[in-house]
Amino acid sequence: MVTSVDAAGIRMAVTDEGSGVPVLLVHGFPLSAGMWSKQVSVLQRTHRILAPDLRGFGGTEVTDGEVTMEQFADDLAALLDAMGVEEPIVLCGLSMGGYIALAFWHRHRERLKALILSDTRATADAPDAAKGRRDMADRVQREGPAPLVDQMLSKLISPATVRDRPQVRDELSSMMMGCAPVGVAAAARGLARRKDWTDQLGEIDLPALVLCGAEDAITTPAEMQRMAAAMPDARYVEIPGVGHVPPMEAPEAFNTEVRRFLDQLG
Ligand code: MLT
Question: Which domain covers residue 197, as residue numbers?
């Protein structure tokens, strides 16, 4: 069921299914909660699955300017408050959702039971990458999401996914093209300014599952292995044959790993 919730001064759309320990699924950029459809349908059998559209994406209100990872994290905490979720949650973030997970850990760690970090990184953008993002933000605001979709789409999924599950490319393309340009631009500016968490990874002593597509060209297995090794209670798992979006490219394998982790948490 998708509901509308007033939180942090905006109206947010959130999928809310199942009961049990809450699992908050935080989508990547520039996507929406729709990327988690194959997780919601399976994991709701044992857990309460909350999958919000982040500020500026999907059915959630758009705000202009810049939205930082900290703002997204605070939005999620406000959403949990507004929904009366008091018990510690498992936060699962993909890519930008992982950057937000790290900001959430920094600001709201008492609300966390465990972390699942998929295809993400702890580092900030290098100065030239940050400039490229800001330029792209201005362009998207003028021209719509098409230039960003052209730049990103081919890098998101593996050749095997293109061959064996061509619908994933179409789903990603329509999700990205459906984004509000102002929302995408604001998030891109926030991404360009995000913090480097590398030195704090050793303090994240929560149980963590670190997942990466073996052919992820954006956040590579080598980078994610280093990230997991720096976290005291993290397990690294690679999902073969897929790129940057394992929940959509290999939902069965992704769900198996997540299910195993959730079962171990109890
Ligand atoms: C994402 O999937 O969220 C993006 O690839 C994040 C990024 O551009 O750094």
Answer: 2-265
